[in-house]
Amino acid sequence: MSEEILINVTPRETRVGVVENGMLQEVHVERASRRGYVGNVYKGRVQRVMPGMQAVFVEIGLERAAFLHASDIVRPPLPEGAEAHGNGHTPSISELVHEGQEIVVQVVKDPIGTKGARLSTHLSIPSRYLVLLPHARTLGISARIEDEEERARLKEVLGGLIGEDNRLGYIVRTNAEGQSAESLAFDVTYLSKVWRVVQENIAKARVGERVYEELSLPLRSLRDMLTDDIEKVRVDSRETHEKVVKFVHKFMPSLDDRIEHYSGERPIFDLYGVEDEIQRAMKKEVPLKSGGYLIVDQTEAMTTIDVNTGGYLGTRNLEETVYRTNLEAAQAAARQLRLRNLGGIIIIDFIDMNDEEHRRQVIRMLEKGLARDHAKTTVYPMSALGLVEMTRKRTTESLERQLCEPCPACGGRGTVKTAETVTYEIFREITRAVRQFNAEKLLVMASPKVVSRILEEESAAVAELEEFISKSIRFQSEEHYSQEQFDVVLL
Fold it and tell me: 355 CB contacts (<8 Å, ≥6 apart)?
């Protein structure tokens, strides 16, 4: 399998695409105006205790107070000889924290929709091969490393590195499989340095201040996804390329030769049709090669995927047609979940099949498609109605929720791209147009909201763009244009 990571950087937005065998499988977006908070550690203050929910709201300097459940609070070690609380059950929230108390917390889930961020006091700081757990003295190995000999080797190596007196806990990550003692030693040293700095920051920080920040999207993606399977990492920004090269050289020197600066004429996301795939991922309908199709519906409570045969009649009988369509749909559904970053409860409504073996094979195909997913997934057996319930771990908003907003014209029944998204599409279209055609200056016609946003909030970016292309750009507001509609005219 050939696998590449494409990193596209513009002044206000960074996008990372994972391409397998020429097809986009994952896309991640990070905007300067709205960087995620997951992984960040803050000094907070307990704002409100809610005994009925066994939880508290914590002020950490974000727009909305964040949520901390009793089960996510580190409990102090019991004095020697003392008995555990109620057979190991979580004590009452009021026994653990009180209103006004200062507390160090880590964001484990970004604010999503109307919900504030989800917090934990079980801090974890990841490196390339390990995760540091400052408040736990455990030494764990990822369940995805299945070889018993390798598990024992890693445990022995790490045990030797950290010694018996160590007060910190560690988890060995999946990509540590087969790594040398030197590589793990490097990570132990790195994590102990990071933790020392975090402790110093905690000591001097005020409430609402960040004491540890997770890596930026390009570096985070490489830390979590760059393995021997990745043939190339292409970066279209020289500055980001330099940062990536330094990071990879420091943490994964054996993969130095995989990093390359992309300076091609075509925009990097036009390679392998990535840009088109992102546009398609905004649509509800997903066509299948057989002529069938999926309908993907994301709601607040869950995501449903409906499988339809469409015009596909097959060559044999109806059962065979249904089976073939369901097999293809299982593969396509697994890809769409990754591509659209859909999380939480997911229900896939396959077409009814009578044959028990066919049902088993469709589930196997779904599980096989999910095997390369970086998010944790759990698939349950198919119900009598042909429904498959599954869960996929969600830490950030889905792709659609990141790139789109509820449509004002339809009262939220559908979505349109945000003015911000259209702004960046215009910037990309300008760059593409000047590469292909000669022009003295450019005229951009777009909806009033988009033009107003560009002139007010993106004036610095426009100035940078004009300097970059050595041409002047004029923006004209068109009342009859919809928010997604624009034209770039060469003058």
Answer: 319, 323
Q: Which two tokens stand for residue 424?
A: 């960046």
Residues 378 and 435 in one domain: no
Ramachandran class of 32: left when φ > 0, alpha when ψ lies in -120 to 50, beta otherwise: alpha
Question: What pairs with residue 474 in β-bridges?
Answer: 443
- Rounded Cα gap, residues 161 and 179, in angstroms: 14
Q: Where are the alpha helices (DSSP H) in 163-261?
A: 181-204, 217-225, 238-251
Distance CA 175, CA 173 (A): 6
Q: Within 13 Å, how many C-alpha atoms sit on residue 215's CB side?
A: 17
400 within domain boundaries:
no
Provide the residue range defining the domain that includes 373: 281-392
CA distances from 240 to 8, 218, 232, 468 (A): 9, 8, 15, 17
| Other residues' Cβ atoms within 10 Å of the Cβ of residue 84 | 10
Does residue 54 sit within a domain? yes
Number of domains in the chain: 4
- Digitized pLDDT (tens) for each residue of the chain, 491 residues in all: 789 999 999 989 999 999 999 999 999 999 987 788 999 999 999 999 999 999 999 999 998 999 999 999 988 665 555 555 555 577 899 999 999 999 999 999 998 877 899 999 999 999 888 999 998 888 899 888 889 999 999 999 999 988 766 788 999 998 788 888 988 998 898 898 889 989 999 999 999 999 999 899 999 999 888 888 899 999 999 999 999 999 898 887 888 999 999 999 899 999 889 999 999 999 999 999 988 999 999 988 899 999 998 765 655 678 888 999 999 999 999 999 999 999 999 999 999 998 999 999 999 999 999 988 888 899 999 998 889 999 998 878 899 989 998 877 666 767 888 999 999 999 999 999 998 888 889 999 999 999 999 999 999 999 999 999 999 999 999 999 989 999 999 98
CA distance 369 to 382: 16
Judge if 186 and 71 occupy the same domain.
yes
For residue 423, count other CB atoms closer than 10 A to its CB. Answer: 23
* Helices of type H across 237-314: 238-251, 274-280
This prediction's pTM: 0.76
- The answer to the question of residue 405 being in a domain is no
CATH number for the domain harbouring residue 285: 3.40.630
